[in-house]
């Protein structure tokens, strides 16, 4: 097939050259005859000694004198002979051109527009006409003038350069638009793509073609971004070259002929340069593109682009708005340009082509078109593969596996990033069962993108593949860190299993351990840059973990999908390219920047509801444009979720939902509901910010320092921590085995404390709300060694009780404060524990005196700055800035560093009704 294609091209080239030669003979014959006649006259002058009279300067008297010369008849006879030879040679010229155009410019390529404009072409685009009409030319004949069509080679044959004349922009637009409509109307819809760039105009570049802009047939480029167009074309050339080389072909034309089908559309790039000098780099890139373009099915039409191309280029130089000189027909012949096609007819014709293209592609594609006919039939052993959108009716797939292990998604607000994520997750979930795919979904900032994938009040269904869903994580960077720690631990577990089975990747591990549970894990972190927003331990640890997971996760089937509005400001990754180098799959939403490679700006011109899919680390030749259907509107994704839920919900647990905007409810928390009487009670203070639904608590054995301090003036959070600690302890003590002593000198908090005392009493425990705290403290301290009943002192606003505790009655050796210090130091070993609330660090220090901080073994800080907490955290630097609804928790017996917790919700009026 390749040799036949080569022979056909050679025949066309030979025919063109023959006609050029004939035209050259015709146009040069008269000049040749004149030069020969003048030579004969010069010879006669020497022989006859007459005065030479030039034919071109003759006057009537000179001609009369010459005509009487004896040699005149001989000269005129020779001129007549040359003239006869001239017209004999010319007879073949117009006829040859007409035959050539008829044979190589069929249908719309050469016919008058009235014969085809408005009709949608049906040529499948395997072969292209060799010539395309631009006008006609007329030369004198022996009897009548001779007229012939003027056509230029394009597409696979040649580029076209047009040089305008003053005030001929409309004529230039007419030439270009006529050619484009001929090309578009020749082929079936989708077989041709037009790329338009004009350095001088922001809009209105060939406006009659704008109906095509809602399809892939027409793309406009920013006038200041020629590099975007050149990068796209260069990437296309590299991709076609790589594909052709693998198949043993050197051009797209050969690939089409060998396969018998259109594997790629023709591309026509129209560049209006307006005579402006291109930047040196742009000029060099244009020359490089032009050199390889024809073989890749790309034709350039350059208008006033002052760059010489070292490849096949035809030229048209406008003489005025109706005439041009063509290099095809020689330098001395004017071409009568075809008039521009009627604007209204062109608009209607372009609209019909656009409608036909949309209809051919099945119309606007829906999310349902991404889904398979049967759910959960694919295996993820080797990779995850699923379509996320469509291009020209064909599905565009995303592949996550060893070759493209991690994904970077970028798109500004409103660009469709969330919709793309839903399309991606839904397409994967429909193909792979929860045994094959496990999803961990986290949305930073104030996002609730994934909230609908968890069960809610209105919809009890959930996405069975989801194991963890985090929403509204606007300030809880610690939760992102917890997810990375979980993934790192899972990576260690899988690596150990792989080592045990002497394999190196997930596919082999699943083969060697068929009974194990080894799904591919995909962790989606939206707005991930917020995880690295601070210069603290969270950022440092998260960076280290993310780099490790990015490097080693691919072999064990752990994949990251990192999405962001803007990745430009992530200081944590400056000079640390490990993560981004592993994100070989790049997805750029419209107007996204710095997601693809630095020189790839395909996303800048991507239309709305589209995405640029690139599996080659963002370099331009890997671009695939995809229209992403609506996957996030109401009831679109839910239909799929309900199908999956009905199929899998009985076999898989509901996902863990972490909602940073809501405090957990103690009564609904598993760690609380599972509590039973024990000899080692544990006071629950709040929810741990972790992948698992765990609570943070303090064990209260009979050991020194087992007291708890709540620090800060945030009343609601302080009451909540005190309340959850008391109620959780109450569930672990048998009836009549503990006494709760409550004290609250703060008037505003007294009702809440009284309510707690009443609840504890209703649960069968001794609970006393005392007015005389000093007296009660003294009494307990004096009987400390003889008491056999556990006691828990719940002291609210201890700092407000200091004046009363410091006072001594007459004859009293120790004050209430002295005895409180005794209880803090010695009480825990006798089963007496203090849970106290101090509204400032200074007041806590006053309470402890010179005894140091060892008597406070654990604490929860609220609106207290981190630098004040160092003495109570084993002297280490504490990074903590107070934030509403959160507390910093530290237990010196279990913690290496403090951790952030979420106090439980404390509903008002618990005892009402």
Automatic annotation (TrEMBL):
Gene3D superfamilies associated with the record: P-loop containing nucleotide triphosphate hydrolases
FtsK domain: residues covered: 393-598
InterPro entries in the cross-refs: FtsK/SpoIIIE/SftA (IPR050206), FtsK_dom (IPR002543), P-loop_NTPase (IPR027417)
Keyword terms of this UniProt record: ATP-binding, Nucleotide-binding
Keyword Glycoprotein tagged: no
One Pfam family in the UniProt entry: FtsK_SpoIIIE
Residues annotated to bind ATP: 411-418
PANTHER family: DNA TRANSLOCASE FTSK, SPORULATION PROTEIN RELATED
Annotated protein name in UniProt: FtsK/SpoIIIE domain-containing protein
């Amino acid at each position: 097939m390749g040799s036949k294609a080569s022979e056909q091209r050679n025949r066309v080239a030979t025919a063109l050259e023959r006609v050029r030669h004939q035209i050259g003979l015709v146009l040069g014959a008269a000049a040749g005859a004149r030069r020969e006649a003048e030579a004969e006259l010069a010879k006669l002058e020497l022989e006859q000694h007459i005065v030479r009279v030039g034919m071109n300067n003759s006057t009537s008297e000179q001609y009369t004198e010459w005509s009487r010369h004896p040699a005149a008849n001989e000269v005129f006879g020779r001129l007549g002979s040359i003239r006869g030879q001239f017209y004999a040679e010319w007879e073949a010229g117009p006829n040859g051109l007409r035959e050539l155009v008829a044979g190589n410019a069929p249908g719309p390529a050469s016919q008058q527009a009235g014969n085809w404009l408005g009709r949608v072409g049906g040529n499948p685009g395997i072969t292209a006409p060799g010539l395309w009409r631009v006008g006609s030319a007329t030369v004198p004949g022996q009897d009548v003038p001779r007229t012939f069509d003027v056509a230029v080679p394009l597409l696979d044959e040649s580029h076209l350069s047009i040089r305008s004349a003053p005030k001929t922009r409309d004529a230039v637009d007419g030439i270009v638009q006529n050619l484009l409509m001929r090309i578009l109307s020749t082929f079936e819809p989708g077989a041709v793509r037009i790329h338009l760039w004009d350095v001088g105009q922001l809009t209105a570049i060939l406006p009659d073609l704008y109906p095509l802009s809602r399809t892939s047939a027409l793309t406009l480029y920013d006038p200041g971004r020629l590099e975007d167009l050149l990068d796209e074309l260069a990437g296309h050339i590299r991709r076609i070259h790589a594909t052709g080389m693998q198949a043993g072909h050197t051009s797209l034309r050969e690939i089409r002929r060998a396969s018998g089908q259109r594997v790629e559309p023709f591309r026509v790039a129209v560049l209006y340069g307006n005579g402006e000098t291109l930047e040196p780099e742009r000029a060099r890139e244009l020359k490089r593109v032009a050199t390889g373009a024809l073989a890749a099915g790309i034709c350039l039409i350059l208008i006033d682009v002052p760059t010489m191309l070292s490849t096949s280029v035809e030229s048209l130089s406008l003489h005025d708005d109706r005439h041009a000189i063509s290099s095809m027909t020689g330098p001395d012949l004017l071409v009568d340009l075809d008039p521009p096609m009627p604007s209204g007819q062109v608009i209607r014709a372009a609209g019909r082509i656009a409608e036909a293209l949309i209809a051919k592609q099945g119309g606007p594609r829906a999310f349902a078109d991404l889904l398979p006919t049967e759910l959960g039939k694919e295996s993820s052993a080797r990779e995850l593969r699923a379509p996320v959108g469509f291009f020209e009716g064909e599905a565009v797939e995303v592949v996550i596996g060893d070759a493209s292990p991690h994904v970077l998604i970028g798109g500004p607000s409103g660009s469709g990033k969330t919709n793309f994520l839903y399309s991606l997750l839904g397409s994967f979930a429909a193909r792979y069962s929860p045994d094959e795919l496990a999803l961990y979904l986290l949305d930073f900032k104030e996002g609730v993108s994934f909230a609908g994938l968890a069960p809610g009040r209105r919809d009890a269904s959930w996405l069975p593949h989801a194991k963890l869903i985090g929403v509204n994580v606007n300030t809880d960077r610690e939760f992102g860190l917890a997810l990375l720690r979980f993934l790192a631990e899972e990576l260690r577990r899988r690596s150990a299993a792989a080592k045990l089975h002497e394999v190196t990747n997930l596919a082999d591990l699943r083969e060697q351990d068929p009974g194990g549970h080894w799904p591919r894990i995909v962790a989606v972190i939206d707005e991930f840059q917020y995880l690295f927003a601070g210069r603290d331990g969270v950022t440092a640890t998260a960076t280290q973990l993310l780099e490790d997971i990015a490097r080693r996760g691919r072999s064990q089937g752990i994949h990251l999908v990192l999405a962001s509005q803007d990745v430009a400001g992530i200081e944590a990754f400056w000079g640390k390219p490990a993560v981004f180098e592993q994100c070989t799959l790049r997805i750029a939403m419209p107007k996204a920047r710095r997601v693809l490679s630095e020189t790839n700006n395909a996303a800048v011109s991507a239309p709305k509801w589209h995405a640029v899919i690139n599996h080659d680390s963002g370099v331009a030749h890997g671009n695939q444009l995809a229209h992403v259907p609506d996957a996030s509107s109401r009831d679109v994704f839910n239909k799929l979720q309900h199908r999956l839920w009905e199929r899998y919900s009985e076999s898989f647990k509901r996902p863990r939902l972490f909602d940073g905007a809501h405090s957990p409810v103690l009564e609904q928390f598993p760690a609380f509901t599972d509590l039973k009487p024990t000899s080692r009670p544990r006071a629950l203070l709040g929810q741990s910010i972790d992948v698992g639904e765990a609570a943070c608590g303090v064990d209260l054995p009979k050991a020194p320092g087992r007291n708890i301090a709540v620090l800060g003036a945030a009343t609601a959070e302080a009451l909540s921590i005190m309340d959850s600690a008391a109620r959780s302890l109450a569930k672990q003590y048998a009836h009549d085995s503990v006494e709760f002593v409550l004290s609250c000198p703060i008037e505003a908090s007294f009702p809440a404390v009284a309510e707690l005392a009443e609840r504890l009493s209703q649960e069968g425990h001794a609970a006393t709300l005392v007015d005389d705290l000093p007296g009660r403290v003294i009494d307990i301290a004096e009987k400390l060694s003889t008491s056999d009943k556990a006691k828990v002192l719940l002291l609210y606003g201890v700092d407000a009780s200091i004046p009363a505790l410091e006072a001594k009655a007459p004859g009293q050796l120790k004050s209430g404060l002295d005895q409180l210090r005794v209880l803090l130091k010695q009480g825990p070993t006798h089963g007496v524990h203090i849970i106290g609330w101090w509204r400032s660090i200074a007041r806590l220090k006053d309470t402890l005196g010179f005894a140091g901080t060892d008597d406070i073994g654990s604490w929860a800080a609220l609106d207290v700055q981190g630098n004040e907490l160092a003495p109570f955290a084993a002297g280490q630097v504490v990074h903590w800035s107070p934030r509403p609804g959160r507390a910093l928790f530290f237990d010196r017996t279990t913690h290496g560093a403090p951790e952030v917790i979420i106090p439980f919700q404390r509903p008002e009026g618990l005892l009402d009704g």
